[in-house]
Each structure stands twice: as C-alpha cells, then as structure tokens.
UniProtKB/TrEMBL annotation:
This is L-lactate dehydrogenase. Catalyzes the conversion of lactate to pyruvate. GO terms for biological process: glycolytic process; lactate metabolic process. GO terms for molecular function: L-lactate dehydrogenase (NAD+) activity. NAD(+) binds at residues 9-14, 34, 39, 64, 78-79, 94, 117-119, 142. Belongs to the LDH/MDH superfamily. LDH family. The gene is ldh. NCBIfam families: L-LDH-NAD, PRK06223.1. Residues 144-312 form the Lactate/malate dehydrogenase C-terminal domain. It is found in: Cytoplasm. Pfam families: Ldh_1_C, Ldh_1_N. Its main location: cytoplasm.
C-alpha cells in the first residue's frame, strides 16, 4: 500500500510536484485541490493519462474533504510577487490565504505531515503552525533546500566536480538574508580549500571564485529564471519531492528545511532553515552544527528580518 498525498494549489509548482509524484511507485493516491476547480481537474486528467506505464494510481481533483487520510499535504497556494510589490505586501496577501487553508487541513487531515512551499515560505510556515494548531513536528517549510541545491550546482560548475560530491548548505531565510556557512562546505569530507589545492596538483581545473558572487547567484537565481520564463517550478518541485521521500523513508534524514526554532544559535519563535532531522514522524529537531561567530551573527540577523515581517502580519 502506497502513500496518499494531497497537493493544495494547481499552479505551475503544485502541478509539477504532482506530475513527479504521479510517476513514483510509492504513491498510490494523489489529490489536487484548487479554488479554480477546472484547472485542477484539467491537470489531473492530463497527468492521469500518462500513468499507464506504472502500477495503478488514484488521482482526483477534489475538495478538502478528499484530503482525509493523507500521509502528506503539500501547500503551494499563494500569489506570485508582482513587479513593484514589497515583501510585506506579498506576505500579507499570502498569509491571508494561509489563514483559510490551515484550519481546513487540520480539520480533514489532522495526522498528515505538511510541507509548506508557497512564499515567503518561512513566514507562511510559521503562519500555518499558528492557524492550524497542528504539532510542530508535523509542519515543514521547504526553506533553503532549493537554495542549497543551487549552491552545490554553482560550486560543481566552478570546481569541475560532480554536484553529489559537494556538501554545503544555505542557512536562514529563503530570501535576501540567507547565507552560506562556508566553514561547513566540503568535497567528500575534505575542506573546500584543501580540495582545491589537491585538485590543482592533479591538473583538475578548479576555478577561483568569489564567495560573494556565489551567494548572489543563490539568492538571485529565482528572479533570473522568472525574468526569462515567467516562473520557477522544476527545481522547487524536485526539492519538495526529496522532502516527501525523506518523510516516507525507513530512516531519518538530515537536510535543510524550515521549522520552528527553539533556541538553536540563540534563535527562537521563528521558522527558518538549518540542519534538521526529518523522517516518518516529521521533524525530530535541529542539529546545531558548529558555526563561526560571524556565521552565527548572520543567522541571528536573518531570523530577526523574518521576525520583523511576522510582526507586521499580526499572526496569532
């Protein structure tokens, strides 16, 4: 028996997540919910007709009642940021949307593990927790997982080495105050500067790079993609599916996602990203890996920026 997953939001992100999951053998039921019911129905019809090459799967466009019994609920609903719109304005609009969604999820799928994807994701993860009343271990924001993948992609291009060999993370807000803890970046366990020296001795073309340019690339990639094609969805969809697989796995996994902080690095009462243990029971807690004093200061500054936005939202 596979898992039942409900996706709220039939836009580009929600539909791409649904399409990837519809091809996974461990998913036996998919429900898509959207205020535009015809859109959700059309997406499901299109995807369902492409599932004839796998074991049978139930796929429906439904309402919140159809989310009952879901193992995972993924929330992608929200409006995209418009030209000239401030982050506060975007947050107010999407927090209002979340205020309607969260109680419905809690009512109809009270035992589900919930992944929040809509932006600003850290603020909306916090809002979902408050408005749903669900347990903290049940609620996970996609956070800086996509940023982390963008980081390792960029470094793979600079170092000329496979992305999977690089371990590095982006911490903090999924946004302009995110940062890279360079003290934690390794290539198969080797510190970055040691790897670069060793690679050059072997004649491997490991480029010099500016760390400031790398974090700018990470922060601005989404905007650059939107400028070129109008939206981003492949990268975030794959990141969310990775979280789903961790939640359905047999063992816990350490990754970077957004969840409630309880004093780690001197930060509390905000949802943000650092190394987090997740698994079949949701969030187990944060791993407080050693950071430099400068990195801790950046983490605190990022958290304070998020708290300032949350304060403006009057979330109770």
């Amino acid at each position: 028996m596979g898992s039942k997953i409900t996706i709220i939001g039939a836009g580009s992100v929600g539909s791409t997540i649904a399409h990837i999951l519809s091809l996974k053998p461990y998913v036996s039921e998919l429900v898509m919910i959207d205020i535009l019911k015809d859109k959700a129905d059309g997406e499901i019809m299109d995807m369902a007709q492409g599932t004839g090459f796998r074991d049978p799967i139930s796929m429906i466009a439904g309402d919140y009642e159809d989310a009952a019994g879901s193992d995972i609920v993924i929330v992608t609903s929200g409006v995209a940021r418009k030209p000239g719109q401030t982050r506060i304005e975007l947050a107010k609009t999407n927090v209002a949307i979340m205020k309607n969604i969260a109680p419905q999820v809690a009512k109809h799928a009270p035992n589900a593990l919930c992944i929040i994807v809509a932006n600003p994701v850290d603020v909306l993860t916090y809002a979902f927790l408050k408005y749903s009343g669900m347990k903290e271990n049940q609620v996970i924001g996609s956070g800086t997982l996509l940023d982390t993948v963008r980081l390792t992609y960029k470094l793979s291009q600079e170092l000329g080495i496979a992305q999977r060999s690089i371990k590095g993370y982006v911490f903090g807000e999924h946004g302009d105050t995110s940062f890279i803890p360079w003290s934690m970046v390794t290539v198969e366990g080797i510190k970055l500067d040691e790897y670069t020296k060793g690679a050059r001795r072997l004649g491997i073309d490991a480029n010099d790079f500016d760390p400031d340019e790398v974090i700018t690339y990470v922060r601005k990639s989404g905007g650059e993609i939107i400028k070129r094609k109008g939206a981003t969805f492949y990268g975030v969809a794959n990141s969310v599916v990775d979280v789903c697989e961790a939640l359905m796995g047999a063992q816990d996994l350490v990754t970077v996602v957004s969840s409630m902080m309880h004093g780690e690095y001197g930060v509390d009462d905000v949802c943000t990203s650092c190394l987090t243990v997740i698994g079949p029971n949701g969030v187990k807690g944060k791993i407080e890996a050693t950071l430099t004093d400068e990195e801790v200061a950046k983490f605190k500054a990022s958290a304070e920026a998020l708290k300032a936005v949350i304060k403006e939202m009057d979330i109770e």
